[in-house]
Each structure stands twice: as structure tokens, then as C-alpha cells.
Please model this.
Amino acid sequence: SAVISQKPSRDICQRGTSLTIQCQVDSQVTMMFWYRQQPGQSLTLIATANQGSEATYESGFVIDKFPISRPNLTFSTLTVSNMSPEDSSIYLCSVVRARTEAFFGQGTRLTVV
Amino acid sequence: QKEVEQDPGPLSVPEGAIVSLNCTYSNSAFQYFMWYRQYSRKGPELLMYTYSSGNKEDGRFTAQVDKSSKYISLFIRDSQPSDSATYLCAMRPSMEYGNKLVFGAGTILRVKS
Model:
């Protein structure tokens, strides 16, 4: 398994501001993944964060809105920029060990008011 | 049409009941099938995964895959109040490193004591 620490666990933010979510893994991994989980909906992959290269974004997600950093093999951040109430959601980071299953952090519950 | 369909519930059962959770999917390329359990305010945790068709048992949990019908199930025997959570099915075409998961919306299960 993998121990993934994610913070903050929750936050209430004003619209128009930005929030940076941090994800720390207990061992080195090549890829880290960021998901969004909206109420009553599937987990949706936002982007894949690779160490040493630009993140790869899924359709419907752009770097200006969700910039990602991956400074080393155990850490990544996701920023939710210029927030609106539609960004209220749970954001999750995840890792996949080579040829094994995905493991998740505890999530960040974001409310934009 | 969503790639993975899952009834959101909630499903409410008495303690000791057998629970059946199901997902259907449309992409015949899916080969790996997973079930995650997510408690309130926590990240998803892997319960079971299976490859291709067949059954897999782990304690009170049985995962079943029918690729001909594009249908997967998770059975919980002797359900306990501690099983109350959201259950997410997930699947992927292969276990190649970094291959993204596609999730169902999750089924809320409530086991009443």
C-alpha cells in the first residue's frame, strides 16, 4: 500500500481566490494523479503529474485553472485558481505503484462561497 | 452514455443481510475491475480487484465479473453497520503503469443495526 497525506482536509474559500492543495507520499512514485469528486458523481481525473515534465490534463481541464507542480518524486500540489461555487468539490490525489492498484489520499473538501 | 453506470442508491439493508452492488459498462476493452469503499470524509480504499471474468472471494466479500454481459457485482455477506459507506466500482483496459481508471458514480450503502 501507500501512505498519502493530503492537506488541507477542508477549506471554505471566497470566490475569485485560489487554493493550493498539497499531496505527500511516503515513498517515491513516478506518477501522481489528481481527481475531482462532485456530489453524486464519479471520480473524474483532472490531470496526471509527472516529475520533471508538464502535467497531462484531461479533456475539460486546463492548466490555467488547475496548475500542478511536481517538484520531486514524493510531492505534488494542485491549485484551484479563480474559484467559483462550481469548483466546490472533493479533490483527491492518487498514486499507482507499478502494475498495482490506485491508492488515494483522504481528500480535500472545498467549498467556495 | 457514461462508460460505467452505477446505481447511486442509497441502499438500506438490515444487519446480517446479503448485499449486492452492481455496475454495468460499455467499453469491451476493460479487463481489470476494482471495488473501492469510501467512508464519509475519507478517500477511497481498495477492497478487491479482479482480472477478466470470474469470481474472487475475500472474507465476507465476493467480486464477480461477467464480461459477456459487461456487468460486475460485489456481494457482501453478513453485512455489518461498519460496512455503511459508498462503494465505487472502477475499471481499466490494462494494468500498464499510468493507465487511468474509469469510476462509477458510487452506491451509498446503509446497514441498519
The longest strand of chain B covers residues 85-92. Chain B has a mean pLDDT of 92.
